[in-house]
Design a protein that fits this description.
It is a single chain. This protein is an alpha+beta fold. It has one domain. 18% of the residues lie in helices and 42% in strands. It has two helices and seven strands. The strands form two sheets. The protein has a five-stranded antiparallel β-sheet with strand order 6-5-4-3-7. It has a two-stranded antiparallel ribbon with strand order 1-2. The longest helix is centred in the N-terminal third of the chain and has 10 residues. It is globular, with a radius of gyration of 13 Å. It starts with a strand and ends with a strand.
């Protein structure tokens, strides 16, 4: 398991082996080559949205100019309500446009 810094949430976010395997299988264009981009997206996102379909999920996005001519990295994070307060990566992928959802924060 990897613990990734997420200043926006004020804590570390878990990336379990099972979720990493999911990303490897479903999004092989992202892992293993661009693991560092997942960490950068959580540490310094360009955009954070609340997933309208899954209220406990936030979508962290970061623009990567060098990735396939310019694409978004999207990292979906679920956070448990207090007192557990655990947060973990559900999935991550490369996208042409920002993920849909209600905007929480955008870099100026």
């Amino acid at each position: 398991m990897a613990l990734l810094e997420c200043p926006y949430l004020g804590k570390r976010v878990e990336l379990t082996g099972e979720r990493r395997e999911h990303i490897l299988l479903r999004h092989p264009d992202l892992l293993p080559e661009h693991f560092d981009e997942i960490a950068k997206t959580l540490k310094d996102p360009d955009d954070v949205r609340k997933d309208d379909r899954f209220p406990a999920t936030q979508l962290f996005s970061r623009w990567c100019e060098h990735l396939k001519g310019g694409k978004w990295i999207v990292v979906a994070v679920i956070s448990d309500p207090p007192p557990a307060e655990r947060s973990w990566v559900v999935t991550a992928y490369i996208a042409r446009k920002l993920a849909k959802g209600t905007s929480e924060w955008t870099r100026d």
